[in-house]
Design brief:
alpha+beta, DNA Binding (I), subunit A, 2 domains, two-stranded antiparallel ribbon, 5 helices
C-alpha cells in the first residue's frame, strides 16, 4: 500500500487523507499553499522541448486553499472500524483485546430504551459481554465501563481511520491536535 497524504485547510486543521494522484491534482491546480513533513513521492511527468523530464515532489502534509471542504467535519461519522480503533480493539467491559471479527458495537444506553447511536453512547464490546448486557442498563446489572465513550476530534478520527501506516511526521502533526492524552482515557480502578 502506498502512503497517504494528509490534507489540511489553510488554518492547519486536518481534513482528509489523499492518494498521491489526488494530491498531484491539487499541486497542478496550484491549490497547495504550504507543506510540512518529508517527501512522500516524486511524480515524473513528460519530457519538455528541452529534453528535460518534469517532476513533482509530493509532501506528506499539504495545506490547500479553495472552497472544497475548507472546514473539518463537526462530528466524524460513526463506523465500527473507527469505534474499535478508538477503543484500541479492547472490550470496555472485560478489558480483553480481540480481533475485529470478535468485536461488536454496544450501546451503553440501549437503543430499545431511548439511547442513540452516537459516539458518546457506544463502546467496543466482545460478543460475550454484549450478549450478557443485552438491552439492560449498567446500573441494573453488575457491569462497569473501563473507559468513557467520547467523540474523536478531526485529528483523532483521521488517525483512527487510516488503513495504511501513518508516517512519523504526519502522526506528530496529528498528535499535537489530539484532545486528550491517551493514558487519561482509561478510568482508574477503585
Amino acid at each position: 500500500m502506498q502512503a497517504q497524504i494528509l490534507r489540511l485547510n489553510l488554518a492547519g486543521q486536518p481534513l482528509e487523507w489523499l492518494s498521491w494522484e489526488e494530491a498531484a491534482c491539487l499541486y497542478v491546480r496550484e491549490l497547495v499553499t504550504w507543506t510540512l513533513g518529508g517527501i512522500v513521492q516524486t511524480v515524473h511527468g513528460g519530457i519538455n522541448r528541452s529534453g528535460e523530464r518534469s517532476t513533482l515532489d509530493l509532501a506528506a502534509i499539504i495545506a490547500c486553499g479553495g472552497e472544497r471542504m475548507a472546514r473539518p467535519r463537526r462530528r466524524p461519522p460513526l463506523t465500527n472500524r473507527a469505534l474499535f480503533a478508538r477503543d484500541e480493539h479492547t472490550c470496555l467491559y472485560c478489558g480483553q483485546s480481540f480481533f475485529i471479527s470478535e468485536l461488536t458495537r454496544d450501546h451503553v444506553h440501549p437503543v430499545s430504551r431511548g439511547g442513540k447511536d452516537i459516539w458518546e453512547n457506544v463502546v467496543t464490546a466482545c460478543r460475550r459481554c454484549n450478549q450478557h448486557k443485552g438491552n439492560r442498563l449498567l446500573q441494573d446489572i453488575e457491569m462497569e465501563l473501563l473507559a468513557l465513550p467520547f467523540v474523536p476530534n478531526a485529528a483523532e478520527y483521521l488517525a483512527l481511520i487510516n488503513s495504511v501506516r501513518i508516517r512519523g511526521d504526519q502522526m506528530e502533526f496529528l498528535r499535537g491536535q489530539f484532545s486528550r492524552p491517551r493514558q487519561n482515557r482509561w478510568l482508574q480502578a477503585s
